[in-house]
Amino acid sequence: MNSAEQNVDLKEIEHFASLAQTWWDPEGEFKTLHQINPLRLNYIEDQVGGLFGLDVLDLGCGGGVLSESMAKRQAQVTGIDMGAEQIQVAKLHALETQTTLDYQQTSAEQMALENPARFDLITCMEMLEHVPDPSSVIAACKHMLKPGGRLVVSTINRTFASRILMIEAAEKILKIVPKGTHQHAKFIRPSELLTWCDAQGLLCDDIKGVSFIPWIERLSLSRNVDVNYMLSLHLPKD
Predict the structure, then answer these.
(1) Is the Cβ–Cβ distance between 184 and 155 less than 8 Å?
(2) Which of 18, 122, 182, 212 has the smallest number of Cβ neighbours within 10 A?
(3) What is the pLDDT of residue 185?
């Protein structure tokens, strides 16, 4: 695993920090995040058979939209992010909503050093494409999972379709994603992600695409993984 200092893109941190105050505005810069959150939450819960009582780590938690949702379903949630502003926003919102969970400003690699074999579930939602070495994050996840634990990842495929839809359309034309959020070269093909997971002994149980029709604001799971996709993996007990 890389050190925390090595596996951080400061420009990415600064970009999201500049938007932190709008994180919980359902009609603001992160409107699409709020729209996709129920789909992600239900997918995660289906994969683990219910969140009640699970020890959960949310990597790259940002302002805490998914973290709070899982905590409200009675999981014991820790949310981590390298952005100080995001973590502060997440903590303040949790206080306002009286939601009990733990937020920390740290990296996956540092968290792994301090929490070996701890978590029942780790979620990593569109964080991998924002770090210099995503394979290091996968290695950290494996180190933190209990035997039998589950990792759920969402990211973006590196295809022509993703360039058109996620950057040209979503950021520049429709403006439903903050401009400058994505870099096509950092998108990750499923084959690449699965190779990193295989190297850590993580077994893939499910892969789903996420279909989004912005003009009618419709989101659904799909077999098409050309743009957004989610993976569900587990660490074998043996």
Answers:
(1) no
(2) 18
(3) 81
CA distances from 65 to 45, 138, 171, 205, 235 (A): 15, 22, 21, 25, 26
**81 labelled as ligand-binding?**
yes
Using CA atoms, how far residue 146 sits from 124, 141, 234, 238, in Å, is: 16, 10, 10, 11
| Residue 148 is labelled as binding a ligand | no
* Residue 60 assigned to a binding site: yes
40 is in an annotated binding site: yes
Specify if 5 maps to a domain: no
Name the domain count of the chain: 1
Per-residue model confidence as pLDDT tens digits over 156-165: 999 888 777 7
Confirm whether 135 is domain-assigned: yes
